[in-house]
Write a structure and sequence with these properties.
- The structure holds two protein chains of two kinds.
- Chain A folds into three domains: about 40 residues, no CATH class; about 70 residues, Ubiquitin-like (UB roll), CATH 3.10.20; about 140 residues, 3-Layer(aba) Sandwich (Rossmann fold), CATH 3.40.50.
- Chain A has nine helices and 14 strands.
- In chain A, the strands form three sheets. A nine-stranded mixed beta sheet of chain A has the order 8-7-6-9-10-11-12-13-14. A three-stranded mixed beta sheet of chain A has the order 2-5-4.
- In chain A, helix 7 packs parallel to helix 8.
- Chain B is globular, with a radius of gyration of 24 Å.
- Chain B has a five-stranded mixed beta sheet, sandwiched between helices. Chain B has a five-stranded mixed beta sheet with strand order 14-13-12-17-18, with helices on both faces. In chain B, strands 7-10-8-9 form a four-stranded antiparallel beta sheet.
- Chain B is an alpha+beta fold.
- The two termini of chain B are about 30 Å apart.
- Chain B has 15 helices and 18 strands.
- Classes of the chains: A alpha/beta, B alpha+beta.
- At the A-B interface, helix 2 of A face helix 2 of B.
- Chain A: Pfam families: FtsQ_DivIB_C (PF03799).
- Chain A: One of its GO terms (biological process) is FtsZ-dependent cytokinesis.
- Chain A: Its main location: membrane.
Chain lengths: ~300, ~450
């Protein structure tokens, strides 16, 4: 029991005199130094993480495993149902055009919205002829919403390739199998006519008084317009300022019934010298009447 | 002398460094306790323009961020007698204060009370070389002071110019820039035993701390316990510590006299211990809880259980009346105060215009001391507590901490000392030749 008592007394003495040992004192002072504190709080954890991280990464197998894990994780997140696009909704396009859009977008649903490049899809859709403009976005509920504004066909263009529909800017809208499908639309013909649709539209509006007699406009020599009427009549317009020339012809025709007469063409190519070409029978008749009048 | 000048200047430099770093520790090495305050300096600690202390009593520049006290070991009469023990005690106090402050302190300003302080009044007069009093002139007049033989093993602790006189105008605190013919200075020099100072310096060095200043605790407690008026008009501060009672006399905000009585509260305790036959710790406890110096009729019936744990029932159940305890304490306290009276008389304290005496220090908390002191020391006696400083914990506001608090005020606003002025030019190079020339000029 002696040792126990001794031990107890010793602890009591220590309690009375709580002086820190020199080492403890230095340690405490050391730990209160700002640099050391900063190093312990930031530097040591940083180094530890760096060492452990690089030790883990030193192995090729682990590196690959980590990489594949990351890829897998990413794939899982991409394939979550919240991010999936299940259908395409196309607004503002007719049946054929919608089919075409589906075809060019060439999407296989369901697809993750991370994999969809909306801008690219929009660019592809806009390259379609009947599409004037399009907006593509991913709507909530996993729907790829495509809003399309179609081109309105304004003219029928007859060329060597066949009939084509053009809009008011001259852009190609669609091939046309038969003229009667769009009998209400004005007709133009000739090479390069599609580049001057605006002028043609203007001429059509001027030529409205001609009514049913107007058959169409022909682009001649990729330079100027001819107005073709029924009975084979033509009004040959100059390359420059064709609308005013046509107005003049119409005005003369209304006063003098020029186009009702048996003439083949009105040549307005030279503005200073408008020429009327008559048909053969009319010429014969005219000669006969003159002879009759001279003789009489 | 030059050696001391250099070492004191080095300490001043250290103090300036620590002020720049912003943290300094103040260490009061007493006989019964060691107190450590950690100060943080933030902002300027300049006095206001009229050189008064100002609304925040001149301590707006610092804040106490750590305070710790520990029982002193190995210190007797305010001198270190067992260096290992004292070092351990200093370490304890510094560690606890650092822990509270959560900052590491490297610089320490220390004070101690013992080591036989002795005051000297020096004076000197020189003729000015020019008309204007410059720094160099001040340094020259300080250097011209006739230093007395203060003994081999002693060292100068303070040497403060307390008064300047220009021609026949006296009482100047700062003569620089003024015009005159001759400049005279009165200086107060305090010497202590060199061995005690060296022991303290060594102790602090061994705790990995740098000494940034050293002061007499009489001076420090005078700074904090005397109010500004008392310092200005003249007062004596009696710091009754554990092992020694130090006396400092202030006049015009300068300390003009210091002395110490090598008796204190520990002697009262040992008297009780011997008189009642109890261990010192028990005697200390009885003194603190039941002690007093004025016996009344009720004290005869007031029995104090003095206890003990010997196992002997009779011995452990001893009681003593409070009157007996007072009978033991009173002669010793009277002796201390008589001794203080003798020292003050020797210093000519009764010649001062104001006779105010302020009692402070841990032993001044003895009940009824002020009544006893006024019978021995004179009518104008009061008990003093240290100034309030920012951040000082409540536990450190008692009179026992007046020297620690005073030392922190001293750290913030040190008084100009001799070594704060540059060495005069003629001392530095070719001094002897020039002095010879001057001697010739003066004598022929």
């Amino acid at each position: 029991m002696r040792s126990l008592i001794f031990w107890r007394r010793k602890t009591a003495e220590i309690k009375q005199d709580p002086a820190p040992s020199k080492l403890k004192y230095r340690m405490q002072r050391w730990m209160l130094t700002p640099g050391i504190r900063l190093g312990l709080r930031i530097g040591v954890p940083f180094c530890l993480v760096a060492v452990l991280g690089s030790a883990y990464m030193a192995n090729e197998v682990r590196r690959d495993a980590l990489r594949s894990f990351v890829a897998e994780m990413r794939q899982t997140i991409r394939n979550r149902p919240e991010f999936m696009v299940n259908m395409i909704a196309i607004d503002g396009a007719g049946g054929d055009l919608a089919d075409d859009i589906r075809e060019v977008a060439s999407l296989r649903f369901p697809v993750s919205s991370f994999d969809l490049d909306v801008d690219l899809i929009r660019d592809v859709i806009v390259t379609l002829d009947p599409v004037k403009s399009a907006t593509v976005r991913i709507r909530s509920g996993g729907v790829l919403q495509v809003d399309v504004i179609e081109r309105e066909p304004a003219l029928v263009w007859r060329s060597h390739q066949g009939l084509a529909l053009l809009d008011e800017t001259g852009a190609h809208v669609a091939e046309l199998g038969h003229r009667s499908l769009h009998s209400g639309l004005p007709l133009i013909a000739g090479n390069g006519a599609d580049a001057h649709v605006e002028e043609a539209m203007q001429l059509y509006s001027v030529a409205r008084p001609l009514g049913q007699r107007l058959r169409g406009l022909v682009r001649v020599g990729e330079r100027r317009w001819d107005v073709v009427l029924d009975r084979g009549q033509r009004i040959m317009l100059p390359a420059k300022n064709p609308a005013s020339a046509l107005e003049r012809v119409i005005a003369v025709s209304e006063v003098r019934d020029l186009l009702e007469r048996d003439i083949a063409a009105v040549d307005m190519r030279l503005a200073a010298r408008a020429t009327v070409r008559m048909n053969n029978t009319a010429v014969q008749e005219w000669w006969r009447i003159r002879q009759m009048n001279e003789g009489g | 002398m030059t050696d001391l000048y250099q070492s004191q200047r080095a300490m001043r430099q250290m103090r300036r460094q620590s002020m720049q770093r912003g943290v300094v520790a103040v260490l009061d090495v007493g006989s019964s306790k060691i107190a450590c305050l950690v100060l943080r300096f933030d902002g300027s600690s300049r006095l206001s323009e009229d050189n008064s202390i100002g609304s925040l009593a001149g301590q707006s520049g610092f804040r106490v961020i750590g305070a710790a006290t520990t029982r002193s070991r190995g210190v007797q009469f305010g001198e270190i007698t067992a260096m290992q023990e004292t070092e351990r005690a200093i370490r304890t106090a510094v560690q606890a204060a650092q822990k509270m402050a959560e900052v590491r302190v490297d610089h320490v300003i220390a004070c101690f009370s013992g080591a036989n302080p002795r005051s000297y009044g020096l004076d000197a007069q020189v003729d000015l070389q020019g008309q204007v009093v410059t720094e160099n002139e001040v340094a020259r007049v300080l250097a011209a002071c006739d230093v007395p033989e203060y003994g081999q093993g002693r060292e100068v602790l303070h040497a403060q110019p307390v008064n300047f006189a220009l021609d026949n105008r006296s009482g100047l605190s700062d003569p620089r820039g003024q015009l005159g013919q001759s400049l005279a200075v009165d200086m107060h020099m305090l010497t202590v035993d060199a061995a005690a100072v060296q022991n303290l310096v060594r102790c602090i060095k061994r705790c990995d701390l740098e000494l940034a200043g050293i002061a007499s605790s009489a001076y420090a407690s005078g700074i904090s316990a005397l109010v500004e008026d008392e310092q200005e008009l003249g007062a004596a501060c009696v710091d009754m510590g554990g092992g020694s009672t130090s006396v400092s006399v202030f006049m015009k905000k300068h300390m003009i006299y210091t002395d110490a009585v090598r008796m204190g509260g520990d002697h009262v305790t040992s008297d009780i211990s011997m008189g009642l036959g109890v261990p010192t710790a028990a005697a200390e406890r009885i003194k603190t809880f039941c002690g007093g110096v004025h016996a009344t009729g009720a004290d005869d019936r007031d029995m104090i259980d003095i206890g003990g744990d010997t196992g002997d029932w009779e011995h452990d159940r001893r009681t003593v009346s409070r009157a007996e305890l007072i009978g033991i304490m009173r002669p010793r306290v009277e002796e201390i105060l008589e001794e203080v009276r003798a020292r003050l008389d020797a210093a000519g304290f009764d010649q001062l215009p104001s006779q105010q005496i302020v009692l402070t220090g841990g032993s001044s908390q003895i009940m009824g001391l002020d009544g006893l002191a006024s019978r021995i020391l004179g009518q104008q006696v009061r008990l003093g507590r240290p100034l309030r400083v920012h951040g000082l914990p409540q536990s450190a506001t008692g009179p026992g901490f007046s020297s620690a608090v005073g030392l922190s005020l001293f750290a913030a606003n040190p008084q100009d000392e001799w070594w704060d002025f540059d060495m005069p030019n003629d001392r530095q190079s070719g001094g002897s030749i020039r002095r010879a020339v001057r001697w010739f000029k003066d004598n022929w």
